[in-house]
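Sample pair:
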Amino acid sequence: MNILFICSRNKWRSATAESIFKKSRNHNVKSAGTAPSAINKISVKLITWSDMIFVMEKKHKQILQRKFPNEILEKKIIILGIEDNYEFMDADLIEILQESVKSYVFDI
């Protein structure tokens, strides 16, 4: 399964998620951001590649719905509800991500 994590700038939250889950044997993991200043910007190619999309906040899903309405029609998009209060690889963020994601992907 191809899993995509999305936040605003792809600097802390989604980048942390990619870093901690990319070692999975059963899944391919990437991350992106919705902001123009994102390190890795969300694109049609990334959305098409993904089987499941995790967004950090409701606003990220809304951006996907507005910018990529056709591309996300068949995609499962999960809102994790993780606000932008953490830095890259913050221990609390890692714990929250692991707990949140395992509800949807058991073997990650």
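The helical segments are 13-21, 44-49, 58-67, 91-102.
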